[in-house]
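We were asked to recover a plausible sequence for a given structure. The inputs and outputs are reproduced exactly as logged, with field labels preserved.

PROBLEM: sequence recovery
POSITIONS: 217
GIVEN STRUCTURE:
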C-alpha cells in the first residue's frame, strides 16, 4: 500500500472509526435511548434516531478538528493539552474498568416520551451532549503529536468519515444487541468496558512516554 494512501486515507478513517466506537459504546443516554426506541417502536425508528444522532456527531467532529488544527499550530498549547489528555485518558481507564465490575442499566430504565420525529429527536439529544468536541480535540492532537495525523483538509474529511461510520455502527450495535440479545447484553458490555479500558490504558502509557521525551529527551 502506498504511503500516501495509508497516511491520508486509511489511518484517518481508521482512527476516526475507532475513536467514535470508543466514545459511544459505553452505556449512555443516547445509545440507551436508541435501544429503548428499538424495543418499543421497532428498528426502523431506532435507525432514524441513530442517523439523526450521527449527523450531529459529524458537525461536532468537524468543529473539534478545526479547533484542534488551531491548537496544533501553537506548540506552546499542544503540550498542555497533551497533559490534560493524559489525565482524561487515565480517568477513562479507571472509569471503564470500574464499569466492568457493575451491571449496566437495563434499556427499560430509559424513558422515551417523544413519539414523532425520531431523526430530529436524535439530532437534538446528541446536540446537548458536548463530550464529543473535547474528546475529538484531544484524540486528534494526540495523534498529531505522535505523527499519525495531519490537519490537512483531506485527512480531516477522512477522519470525520470514519467517525460518522463508527458512530452509526456503535448506535446500531445497541439497537441490534438489545433487540436480539437483551439477556446477554450485560456480559457483552462488561467485557467491552474491559477492552476499552485496556486501550485507553495503553494510550495513557504512550502519552506519558511522549511527555517525558518532551521534557527530558
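RECOVERED SEQUENCE:
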Amino acid at each position: 500500500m502506498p504511503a500516501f494512501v495509508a497516511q491520508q486515507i486509511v489511518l484517518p478513517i481508521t482512527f476516526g472509526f475507532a475513536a467514535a466506537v470508543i466514545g459511544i459504546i459505553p452505556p449512555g443516554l443516547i445509545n440507551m435511548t436508541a435501544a429503548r426506541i428499538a424495543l418499543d417502536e421497532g428498528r426502523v425508528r431506532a435507525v432514524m434516531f441513530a442517523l439523526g444522532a450521527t449527523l450531529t456527531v459529524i458537525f461536532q467532529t468537524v468543529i473539534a478538528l478545526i479547533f484542534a488544527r488551531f491548537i496544533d499550530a501553537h506548540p506552546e498549547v499542544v503540550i498542555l493539552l497533551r497533559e490534560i489528555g493524559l489525565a482524561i485518558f487515565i480517568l477513562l481507564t479507571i472509569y471503564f474498568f470500574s464499569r466492568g465490575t457493575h451491571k449496566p442499566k437495563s434499556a427499560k430504565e430509559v424513558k422515551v416520551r417523544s413519539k414523532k420525529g425520531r431523526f430530529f429527536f436524535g439530532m437534538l439529544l446528541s446536540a446537548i451532549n458536548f463530550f464529543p468536541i473535547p474528546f475529538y480535540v484531544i484524540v486528534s492532537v494526540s495523534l498529531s503529536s505522535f505523527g499519525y495525523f495531519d490537519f490537512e483538509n483531506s485527512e480531516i474529511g477522512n477522519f470525520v468519515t470514519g467517525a460518522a461510520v463508527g458512530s452509526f455502527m456503535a448506535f446500531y450495535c445497541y439497537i441490534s444487541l438489545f433487540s436480539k440479545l437483551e439477556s446477554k447484553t450485560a456480559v457483552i458490555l462488561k467485557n467491552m468496558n474491559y477492552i476499552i479500558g485496556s486501550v485507553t490504558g495503553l494510550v495513557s502509557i504512550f502519552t506519558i512516554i511522549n511527555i517525558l521525551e518532551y521534557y527530558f529527551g
